[in-house]
Amino acid sequence: MSQQDFTLGQRYVSDTEPELGLGVVLQVSTTTAEIGFPAAGERRTYSIKQAPLSRVRYNIGEKIKHQDGQALTITHVMEQSGCLLYEAVDADDQTRAVPEFELDSFVQFSKPRERLFSGQIDKSNHFSLRYRSRVLRHHSEQRSGFGLGGARVSLLPHQLYIASQVASRYAPRVLLADEVGLGKTIEAGLILHRQLLTGRAHRALVIVPDTLMHQWLVEMLRRFNLSFTLLDEARCQSLEGKDCDDFVDEFDEPEDFNPEDIINPFESAQLVLCSLSFITDNPERLEQASAADWDLLLVDEAHHLEWNREQASLEYQAIEQLARVARGLLLLTATPEQLGVESHFARLRLLDPDRYYDLEAFIAEQKSYQPLSELVEHLNSVRPEDAEVTGDLFDAQINELAEYLDQASIDRALAQAKTQSLQLAIDQLVEVLLDRHGTGRVLLRNTRHGISGFPERILHLNPIELADDDAKALGQYPLEVQLKPEGYWAEQGDWWLFDPRVEWLKSLIKAKRGHKILVICADGDTAQSLELYLRLRHGIASTVFHEGMNLINRDRAAAYFADMEEGAQVLIASEIGSEGRNFQFSQDLVLFDLPLNPDLLEQRIGRLDRIGQAGSVNIHLPVYHNAAAPQAQAKLADWYHHGINAFEHTCAIGQSAFTAFADKLVPLLADCGADINPLLKETADYAQTLNDELQAGRDKLLELNSCRPGPAQAMVDALEALDEDDTLPEYLMRALDSFNVDYERHSDISWVLHPGEHMRVDPYPGLPESGLTVTFDRDVALSRDDMSFLSWEHPLVRGTLELIADTEFGNTAVATLKLPPLKPGTMLVEAVYCLYTPAPASLQLSRYISQPVMRVLMDTNGKDFAQVLGADKLNQILQKVARPTAQELVRHSREQIGAVLDNTELAVAPLRAGQVAEAKHKVSEDIGREIERLQDLAKVNPNIRSEEIDYLSDRLAQSLEYLDNASLKLDAARVIVAV
Ligand SMILES: Nc1ncnc2c1ncn2[C@@H]1O[C@H](COP(=O)(O)OP(=O)(O)OP(=O)(O)O)[C@@H](O)[C@H]1O
């Protein structure tokens, strides 16, 4: 600022460090002034010539605070020896004299009016950026795909549909049961991401098998920018301070001990990840986890939660305990019936104990879906393609509908079909039917049947001739040994030297040089000895993966296998070790043995047959062959292949078929020599019937409910259009420039960002000290792990929007304008108002406010130019003004500016009522419709939880109340003078 006459006791505010509060002149020399900032406990010495300080001078009518805390209103201002003496009145109208040095120092000039009049004037382009940030943030949060588009994933309709359906619910409780490898982890991540971004959830606990901890940690960070805290015993102890030597001493004295001093490690972070065994092996940790507050509990590979009428497994009990306290629950499993229908039912009961209380009723209900599915099919078949067509439904359809819907709903649909659109009426009828009947709300399952682009699965059966003696001898062993015959060979010495499968495997690996091969066997011990032998004896680049290894070593092994240049050719994994893992870069799977469980078989094949698999999946299966004594492995392979076709296709009926035929199958397998052919025929017929039934009944309904192609594709289209839009790079460039963040543009779609030397804030949100390489292109992000995918949902972008819109950045400015119709000297004030609704984020009230940012551009006569001179157009023609000139200008025209600002407030005030009324109407319609729907549904479908309805009613009441309290606040003011 220009040179001032500093006098002891005068009050100033720092232009560059306004957060120091009100400063007071402590010492003045001929060249410098020392200013104390009592609120911050700081002192600064400035050169008198160039001090970045603004004199604080209050006017009559303004509110001030005395240092003793008393609030006052100024009635008179006098100047004595260079210092101001205010005369002011308190709330009781008592007059008091306040010398300026007695003013409260804790004043923060953050409101635009205060900042403007105390000389805190920002750059004009920062004002523009602020306005734009507010508008863009509003647009981004209003999009229906908000929270789904920012993840580093391909936009797949079936995943987006499920995620948007589930994430829009309050505290969703669902079983995500897509077939193996269709992306349940991604769906869960999308749901969590959307719930977090929209404020519906804040805290989440993810529980996974040991083997998947690291994969989840990495996937959540890499794909969703969600940073989880991984809890194991060591980490918990460290959080509790138990790893410090002094811990014991600290609590030596009983009187020192206060239970509240104990930290609950599960409360140390918002997003926590731990393994299932961690909480089942440590009851006190389970208690701590249950004592913490969770909006969402996610359990991966939930088929491990075994339950039957006699006994619930430890795993089931632990999750049951947590499921009672967590509001939302997502269970993930591709094979919900792997442990039988009882466990499946029990898991549904975890989700909704009121609905699933009777196993028998549940089993009966499962069978009754066919007529409903037929009706839905029937309606879809008469649905015209053209939305313009109106007409009647046939009597037959109306009669069928009457079985499921009340007369009022049917009449509504008939009227709509006749007057509006037959297509629309049928769409809505189908939606209501799916909504009201079936397990649709709790169980969501996409199958490969409904999704294209999956690889072919090719079975390569490799008969291995077994000597008669061995064949007969092996046939005498229990079935378990026959299916895992290394136990038999072990009796002769090192089993791998005798078992002919090993020699076969070695040859296959050599023949497939250059191809990655995943070998899965049942036991960890078998995996280890096999790998050791192949690596040490035959120089095969291999690695091993089993449940006995610690997490780090498992992840190392998986990474070594995944390394395309120098990695292992072969990974030998045990059953448990390989579950849930992503190995789709390999096209060759060796089943070293066969599990006696179709779902386990599907889990094995699913390691390769997953989204992202670019080639065909070759399944290599060695089976002992001996014509005289047919072997168990060979018979089981036949049953899987010819009985239920489980190798070459995912097999939805595998578990049911196994349950139905286990009594016949198991003795036949065990009996060396018994003929399996009649059972193959019987199983195949059964499988055919069951598949047909499922396709017509439950599975069809599930499929229709889990992905409605039209809306799902519309979501993809909208998100793709957003990806194409170049508003984000253009906006970000301006923002980064304004904050002095360094960036280099590699190309239009990828940049390298670095913290700049003179950044306005340090650290910059979402920008690591080491910098960040970013891309705006989804495809590039998908193929380049080293680049961050920048979208409106990325922490750096959201952080930038917050940094600008939630601080005083750019909330005051002065500029000049040359526009011939305006006479030089004409003054305009551009005022931006925001409809401010201080409500919890979870209510998402901004979604209902169509125009929360209002802009007025007013001259001293009260004429508003906002329409004629839009924000963008105005920004292009404004000229910047040097700060001292701007401060001078504001000082001189303070009264005039104040009066125009008052007028802008009067001009926008009536808009508040309109905005609030519109928002209240929308929120009542939106939530009211949902309440009505749920109440309707509850009459026919016990899937609806009463808390869901209560929650919505409460949410509606709260939303209306908060909207009533919404107020318009001046967000930024710019003074513009025509020249
Ligand atoms: N939308 C997507 N974009 C990119 N990759 C995806 C997408 N969906 C899934 N994938 C990839 O496909 C693989 C399978 O996904 P995911 O692990 O989520 O499947 P899953 O259904 O949980 O599998 P499993 O049944 O084995 O547990 C993973 O490698 C995942 O990263």
Coarse structural class = alpha/beta
CATH superfamily of the largest domain: P-loop containing nucleotide triphosphate hydrolases
Give the rounded overall mean pLDDT: 87
Instruction: Note the beta-strand portion.
Output: 15-25%
For the record, the CATH architecture of the largest domain stands as 3-Layer(aba) Sandwich
| C-alpha end-to-end distance | 23 Å
Number of helices: 37
Q: How many strand units? A: 31
- Report the helical percentage: 40-55%
What is the CATH level 1 assignment of the largest domain?
Alpha Beta
Small molecules (ligands, ions, cofactors) in the structure: adenosine-5'-triphosphate
CATH topology of the largest domain: Rossmann fold
Largest sheet: 7 strands, parallel
Radius of gyration computed on alpha carbons: 35 Å
Described by the principal axes of the CA atoms, the overall outline is elongated
Task: Extract low-pLDDT stretches.
Answer: 244-254
* Biggest sheet: strand arrangement: 12-13-11-14-15-10-16
Number of domains: 6
Keywords: Activator, ATP-binding, DNA-binding, Helicase, Hydrolase, Nucleotide-binding, Transcription, Transcription regulation
Motif (DEAH box): 300-303
Protein name: RNA polymerase-associated protein RapA
InterPro entries: DEXDc_RapA, Helicase_ATP-bd, Helicase_C-like, Helicase_RapA, P-loop_NTPase, RapA_C, SNF2-like_sf, SNF2/RAD54-like_C
